[in-house]
Write a structure and sequence with these properties.
alpha+beta; 22% strand; 11-stranded mixed beta sheet; 450 residues; globular
Length: 450
């Protein structure tokens, strides 16, 4: 019976792969079959429209005044013009049909690859006794006042935690507060705040081998998201104090400064230094980007990642584990936090043509994506502006980034939403092999834990 079920699953896998390839072919041929030469010309017009839109967006970011306004108009007119051309030819249905076919191809292809039996790597959970003397820092301004909204101070104290409410009107050294708590006998350090604050307390916890509690009360909570915590109700994170498990995750460092998410150099690192960035992120970015993107201001960067040299990028992002780049629905997420590798993303765009290539090409020359254990970012200036987990810093060049593998013991609730399972990467070459196969093609079912 088991053999018959396996064969049935393998047959479904093969037909799903064939369906994905057929849907892609139909999506590409539909404009030509439906409209003949006119359809072919409209397809070419669509590609030109996409390229013009990408180029226009580049001009919006890299120009000022009337040129920026004209580029903004072009960014709207180009796609509207393409849609108008299809509508005038009574082929607008082809656009929607092609989009549906592409969606079907993606769904069918992922089903075929998911059904091979391979499972994503899971982070091993460790059962440890609850802390006896937990210490928690709360930032009342973080996340627009989530600390007060969810009564985090009162709930943490009810669970036996010592709580320090940070004074929003006076700067306090959270690293010093965490170290003082350790000296006083704390056996867990927790924090409700932004990712930058979390990183500083996490470094103290890692240094002393103590568990670290993340309370998702920040604005974006990227670290909490990749830990699988509930970002809608941060009070649920406190369940880890009584019914929790530990995860061993990595911690990144930039010249000794810890980060749980990423260190940004170049464009973003400079933009976050702007005085008005916190109040008006878009306005601050548009004000500084023209000079930064066209290299009229800012240092010239060089990045070296485990022997690979990246010359003159406008932006370099070094992350604590690699971000997912192949899935728009999972973009910005990390599949793992314990790989022991830094993610590196570098962008170099010097013209509208290269901006269009960045959007349209599957492998643009201006985009570098890799992983490394050690990354060095240098510049032709003595100091580098860095965005470290969103916090603005200035560090002497060169900046050495490294990763401490599984150095951080993160205590999380045993019952939590978890990280959504990432769909498999669409590998069209593998799909072609599956579609052409006539026998059992699936890999043996297995799940891996690390």
């Amino acid at each position: 019976m088991g053999s018959a079920m396996a064969e049935r699953d393998h047959r479904r896998q093969r037909w799903a792969a064939r369906g994905a390839l057929a849907a892609v072919a139909l999506a590409a041929l539909l404009p030509i079959v439906s409209g003949g030469l006119k359809g072919l010309l409209l397809l070419l017009a669509g590609l030109v429209g996409l390229a013009l839109t990408a180029a226009a967006l580049w001009w919006v970011l890299s120009r000022r005044g009337p040129a920026r306004m004209a580029a903004a108009v072009l960014a709207v007119v180009a796609p509207v013009g393409v849609i108008t051309l299809f509508a005038a030819a009574n082929l607008i249905w082809v656009v929607f049909a092609s989009l549906l076919l592409w969606c079907l191809a993606v769904w069918s292809g992922r089903y075929a690859l998911r059904s091979t039996g391979l499972r994503p790597m899971r982070v091993k959970e460790y059962r440890t006794p609850p802390p006896q003397r937990p210490f928690i820092l709360l930032n009342p301004r973080s996340g627009g006042g989530k600390v007060g909204k969810f009564s985090l101070k009162e709930k943490a104290e009810e669970l036996g935690a010592q709580v320090v409410l940070l004074d929003p009107d006076h700067h306090q050294d959270v690293t010093a507060l965490a170290k003082a708590a350790v000296a006083d006998g704390a056996d867990l350090l927790g924090v409700a705040g932004g990712d930058g604050t979390q990183a500083m307390v996490a470094a103290v916890a890692a240094e002393h081998g103590l568990p670290f509690l993340v309370i998702s009360a920040g604005t974006r909570n990227h670290f909490a998201m990749d830990l699988g915590l509930d970002r809608d109700d941060p009070s649920t994170c406190l369940d880890a104090l009584t019914d929790g498990v530990e995860l061993r995750v990595d911690l990144g460092f930039a010249d000794g400064r810890p980060f749980v998410n990423n260190a940004s150099f170049g464009v973003y690192g400079a933009v976050v230094q702007s005085p008005g960035y916190r109040d008006d992120k878009v306005g601050a970015a548009l004000e500084r980007l023209p000079e930064l993107l066209t290299r009229q201001s800012g240092p010239r960067l060089t990045a070296s990642a485990d022997g690979t040299t990246i010359a003159d990028p406008q932006a370099v992002l070094v992350s604590n584990n690699a971000y997912r780049m192949d899935d728009p629905f999972g973009f910005g997420r990390r599949e793992r936090l314990n790989s022991g590798k830094l993610g590196v993303l570098a962008v170099r765009v010097d013209s509208a043509v290269e901006a269009a290539e960045l959007l349209l090409s599957p492998r643009p020359e201006g985009l570098t994506v890799l992983t490394a254990q050690h990354v060095v970012v240098d510049a032709d200036e003595p100091h580098l502006e860095v965005g470290l987990d969103g916090e603005a810093l200035t560090l002497p060049a060169p900046v050495h980034c490294r990763i401490a593998r599984r150095a951080l013991r993160v205590r999380v609730p045993r019952n939590r939403p978890g990280v959504p399972e990432a769909p498999p990467r669409l590998d069209w070459r593998r799909l072609r092999k599956l579609a052409a196969a006539v026998g059992r093609t699936a890999a043996p079912a297995r799940s891996r834990r690390s």
